[in-house]
What we know:
The complex is a heterodimer of chains A (387) and B (235).
Chain A: H1 9-12, E1 22-27, H2 34-46, E2 51-54, H3 60-71, E3 82-85, H4 87-96, H5 100-117, E4 122-126, H6 128-134, H7 136-141, E5 153-159, H8 164-172, E6 178-186, E7 190-200, E8 208-215, E9 218-229, H9 236-243, E10 246-253, E11 259-271, E12 274-280, H10 291-295, E13 300-306, H11 313-325, E14 330-335, H12 345-352, E15 360-362, H13 368-384
Parallel strand pairs in A: 1-5, 1-6, 2-3, 2-4, 4-5, 9-12, 9-13, 13-14, 14-15
Antiparallel strand pairs in A: 6-7, 7-8, 8-9, 10-11, 11-12
Chain B: H1 9-15, E1 23-27, H2 34-42, E2 49-54, H3 59-68, E3 76-80, H4 83-86, E4 96-98, H5 105-120, E5 136-141, H6 143-149, H7 152-169, E6 172-177, H8 184-191, E7 196-203, E8 206-212, E9 222-227, E10 230-233
Parallel strand pairs in B: 1-6, 1-7, 2-3, 2-5, 3-4, 5-6
Antiparallel strand pairs in B: 7-8, 8-9, 9-10
Amino acid sequence: MIRTGITGIDEMLGSGIPKGTRVIFSLEPGVEGRLFMYRTIVSVLQEKKNILIVAPHSTKRAFLSEYAEFLNIDISKIGGEVVILDSVVRETLNTREKKVNSRKKAWKDLIQDELGKHSIDVLFVYFDLLYEDLGLERALDLLPPAEGQHNITTVVEHLNLEGDSLIARFASEKTFDLILSVHSAFTLAPFFNFFTLEYVSWARMPRRSIPYTIAGQSIRLYIPKIIVTGPASSGKSTFVSNASDSGISVDRGDLDGYRTTVAMDLGWLHFRGFDITIFGTPGQPRFDPILPQLVKNAMGIILMIDATSPDTLLRARELLALAYAAKLPLVIAVNKSDLPHQMDEVMIRETLKLRDEVPLFFISSLKRSDVHYVIESMVDRITRHPY
Amino acid sequence: MYTYKTGISLIDEVKGGIPPGSNILILAPSMSSGEQLGYALTRPLPGEYALILSTVMRSVDLMDYFSSEQFNRDLIGVIDSVTKLSTPDVNDNTQIKFVSSPSDLTGIGIKFSALIESMFNGEFPSADQALFPPPIRFYIDSLTTLLMYRKLEVLYQFLHVLTSKLKKMEAIGIYILNNESFDERTLSLMKQLMNVVIEVKTEQHGDFLRIRGVTGVSQEWVPFRIHQGTLELTA
């Protein structure tokens, strides 16, 4: 087993990548996705494994210099042995071998030699120029086979200029055991990057997309905005407060002496490898005009309902319309369920006309464990949502 | 809608400039002033930024050129694919990003996004007349070099992605290609991505340009010269 060294991904993969498998990181042009390969290389070397890197796009020195600049690490000094076949090797082979088949054979022989000579555990391949020089089939044939009876794990980075069709082909033909595509949601400006686990051969896993940000030298899985909304006094501020590692709330006393949110609650938490920001909306209808702005660019909505106040369900339905309008992943949290109440799941689903797949939890937002259960469900919904 | 002035009076006076999302291809033979014409078109006007992918000049030389031609170099970002070939240990800064070689399209794409993001995030000096989205002129100097490192089909696919991003950002793209070095198929494929083509030729009495693709603008050859980084039609 090798690890990518990226918190969250290794856990999703069942503690890492099994020995002898083939992995591809498929990068959309323009997206900062090199760190997936960089981190995996460092992680493997830290386990004292020997690696062969095929990097036909760069000289060995420029390649090592990029690592040093990006990760502040000299990978040749971490642990295992590092062997690099660089752009000089490519030029030599391309000059010497004029025919594509003989060029491919030369590459294959060279890679096989290096794998044996240095007892290589993991082969890392920057694929683009091999694909261009040899064609797809021949370039793929340079790699040890997927799910083969051998000990060499192969990790490939590829600039995908062909889009979803190439990914679909790799997935349908099981060319790789793990296909992870990296994208950017590029609107007017680069908004956020995300990766999609397209296919995993060794685990039953739904296709899921996960945003990430680059913090310093690591990849942090990232959810920039989850909205917590619901009728007044349903417990939104308590929920946000108990969900968060830190946060602020803008409350004022109302005429009845209760505290009410007048702008928003804001909370930050690090949860299951994700950096998450939570926005709690005001519940009073007079603040409804600002809700569309708050929901803008959100990735999911948690709708809070007060289990002890059936008369607020109509208001909850109004707010639900907001969530559906934005076509966002939705989770329902029925709060104050530790108090005497008459509402049950059937009644709530019927009144709110909820689809069956929308999860609904009876919780007390005073309990951190209940709150985190809802957040976990929300994160799961977000990562399954096709952005 | 923001309109990009080209400095070519034939275009600016008739059309008011070039609309965002446009791509301009300069077809110029070697030893002409086509490359300088590209820089003149890329020169950022007040409120604008420029981004240059250099496959010919090192960024340090490019910055010297901008100083000598009186460009506001603070508003210019550079992707340098030349310097690392001889000086592998050079490091990125806010304004200049390096890639290992012109063949490294992955690196070029990443540095492109990083520089654009810096401009949007205000990490470049803010212009006196700040606009949003910030108007950006992107110049590839040159497609000729990129085509020597990568196959035509691959480069076409890459440029196709890049031009769609420029369109979303409401930026413009400027590209230079040596039309003497490539066959008709290459020129034809590259033209497919473009809205405007400016042909350049050099004769005994100087350089001439001809504009294609802008309706209402004459397609006759017009003499021009580049003076202090700006274009002057000399007819």
